[in-house]
Design brief:
alpha+beta; 3-stranded antiparallel β-sheet; binds zinc ion
Length: 89
C-alpha cells in the first residue's frame, strides 16, 4: 500500500474545512503539525486557537485586547497570553 501523500492545496482545503466545523484541541494540534510539516502557514487560522492548549477561542474562553502593534488574546482555559503582530497596512 502506498502512503497517502497530500498536496499543499489539499492540506489547505483540509485546514479550512476543519476550522469551519468547530474543531477540538486534538484536531487543531494535528492539523497544525501537518501544516508545519509541509511548511504551510495557517494565516488567519493561527489566531483562532490558543498556542498552548489548542482550544478554539470563543467569547467565553478568551479576552481580546489590542495593544498596537499587537493583538493580545488571553486564553482563559490555560491563562496563556497569545500575541499576534497586527499588519501595519
Ligand atoms: Zn490556552
Amino acid at each position: 500500500m502506498k502512503p497517502v501523500k497530500l498536496s499543499k492545496q489539499e492540506i489547505q482545503e483540509k485546514i479550512s474545512l476543519i476550522f469551519s466545523s468547530n474543531p477540538s484541541p486534538k484536531q487543531i494540534k494535528k492539523i497544525k503539525k501537518l501544516a508545519m510539516s509541509k511548511n504551510i502557514k495557517l494565516g488567519n487560522f493561527r489566531k483562532k486557537f490558543c498556542k498552548k492548549c489548542y482550544n478554539l477561542f470563543n467569547s467565553n474562553n478568551s479576552e481580546i485586547r489590542i495593544k498596537k502593534p499587537y493583538k493580545i488574546i488571553k486564553c482563559r482555559n490555560c491563562n496563556y497570553i497569545n500575541r499576534y503582530k497586527l499588519k501595519t497596512n
